[in-house]
Amino acid sequence: MIQIDRHKWMVCLTVLLGAIMSAVDTSIVNVALPYMRGNLGASVEEITWVASGYILSSVIVMPVMAFLSARFGRRPFYLFSILLFTVSSMLCGLAWDLPSLIVFRVIQGLGGGVLLPISQAILRETFSQKEQGLAMGIYGMAVVIGPAFGPTLGGWLTDNFTWPWIFYINVPLGIINFWMATKYIQEPSYLVREKGKVDWLGLVLMTCSFVAMQIVFEKGQDKGWFDSSLIVWTTVIAVLSMLLFVWRELTIEKPVVDLSLFKDINFVCGTLLGAVFGFCLYSTLFLQPLFLQQLGYTATQTGIILIPRSLIMALAMPLAGRLYNSWGPRVILFIGLAITVLSYWQFAHLSLDVNGDDLLVPQLCQGMGFGMMFVALSTVVLSTVEKPKLTAAVGLYNVIRQIMGSVGIAIAASLLSNGVTMSRSVLITHVTAYNPNSRHWIADMAHGFVKHGMNAYWANKAALSSISDEIDRQAQMVSFNHIFIIMAVVFVVSAPLILTVKEKPRSKEDEVKVLAE
Questions:
Q1: Which residues contact 487 (CB under 8 A, 6 or more apart)?
Q2: Distance (Å, rounded) from C-alpha 330 to C-alpha 24?
Q3: Cα–Cα dist 106/101, whole Å
Q4: Could you tell me if 100 and 222 are in contact, meaning their C-beta atoms sit under 8 angstroms apart?
Q5: pLDDT of res. 2
Q6: Which of 19, 269, 23, 25 is nearest to 121 (CA)?
Q7: What is the DSSP letter of 498?
Q8: Alpha helices of 452-501 — where are they, by DSSP H?
Q9: Distance set, CA 357 to CA 90, 306, 324, 354, 363 (Å)
Q10: Interval 364-382: pLDDT, tens
């Protein structure tokens, strides 16, 4: 056996540590943004770039990982990324103003954006064909659980120390990760170093497109989408840059991104399913805290209530990985999708009277469904990709999933805002002076205010204000219900794609490797 197989669990621990650091940092700053805003004198709109800058730069670097790995060697590139992430984390904590913090967060994202997908590629190479499901289950724990626990960890560090500690905590972990990587990560034998001209035009076009798309997704709702000239022109730049980028990569001899991967039907269909998964997962992570806080829960209580979903995901992923070889990807995907759709159906029938206990079963179902789908998708989407193209495929798959996650958040926010307006306009038609139930309710509320010492005029005003607030709450609840139904429908519509995915038959080389282990 080769050296990397004898140390596969240490390799696994090494890349898992880097992946967790990167995944956690996508969300750990969210709860600390108000404190940063006060310390740095920033507006609400300005401080959001601390979060979006990291995500944007990590998305930009993902598709070019294969090019950079071939150029400089994957092991040196991975080590450099750990070092870049660690040093920039320290600089984020030491930032003296908002521009410096944003710059350091962008640099941190360039390092962190490499750690997640390369970890996936290394795990696939380290574990045998028989253990691919298990490997992706372990990887999934870092990718999905990290962002879920990030706000909880960030809140604890901010409350007990200060906000720079959400960055300082990466420094000792980064040093340990760098040492472990130098000891256990090996250069893959199939990788051939490539020299020659760099496709700078392709890099610039891709960066312009991704930056423009991120601005559209981040600012579209606030600016009224296409009512804003900024959003219109940014969308034009995003589309034109992407079209020119695709043309460039298909015509140049050595492209910075290998688009020939899309000739693999299995990869295409798996990536489409991954895009749907990212769309629904990230929109759900965005919506559910808002839903709980609308019910009156604090940020801390919301985090605690959402923990069961994260825990069941952590348990479901290794289990799905072990069942993968026996049941195959299609069965795992169908079961995971069915459970996920059931969870959305349960969420869509909740009311304002629910409590934390009522949310337990839908959360457990959702965590189980998401966990099973993630493992199966992460495994099967790369199963037919040749090893020399594995790093490029991992980068493309992850960047598309991330981008669709941003799209999901933007669309969910828009649906929620528009849904509240429409639902309120419908509900308010039933609250009129001609409706005896409305008159009775307002009279009872006004009588109650009078009992507490308020005069009749102001008591009636307070009653009308209270019923208006209740209409707002009910309109929000109806809007949440409709969005959860839409998410369920999106998954159901995507179900036929599962029939197109297939697992590559195990080769004789893999069989020998399994027996040797």
A1: 280, 283, 284, 344
A2: 30
A3: 9
A4: no
A5: 41
A6: 19
A7: G
A8: 456-494
A9: 41, 11, 32, 8, 10
A10: 998 899 888 888 888 888 8
Amino acid 241: pLDDT: 92
pLDDT computed for residue 135 by the predictor:
75
Contact at 8 Å (CB) between 507 and 384?
no
All residue ranges of the chain with pLDDT < 50 are 1-4, 506, 508-517
Cα–Cα dist 42/158, whole Å: 18
Contact 204, 81 (CB under 8 A): no
Give residue-wise pLDDT tens across range 111-159: 888 888 788 778 877 777 777 777 777 777 777 667 667 767 777 787 7
Place of tokens 């309120």: 424
Structure tokens that stand for 495 in this block: 């179900």
The predicted model scores a pTM of 0.75
**pLDDT value at position 138?**
75
CA distances from residue 501 to 3, 76, 80, 322 in whole angstroms, order as listed: 33, 34, 35, 19
Instruction: State the DSSP code for 222.
Output: H
Helix intervals (H) in 295-328: 299-305, 307-327
Which residues have CB under 8 Å from 213's CB, separation 6+? Answer: 238, 403, 406
Q: Quick check: 120 and 139 in contact, CB under 8 A?
A: yes
Specify the DSSP class assigned to residue 431.
-
The structure tokens 């990560």 sit at 185
Amino acid at 99: P
Residue type (1 letter), 191: L
Tell me the DSSP string of 83-140: HHHHHHHHHHHH--SHHHHHHHHHHHHHHHHHHHHHHHHHHHHHS-GGGHHHHHHHHH
Structure tokens at 323: 């069942």
pLDDT score recorded for residue 299? 61
Length of the chain: 517
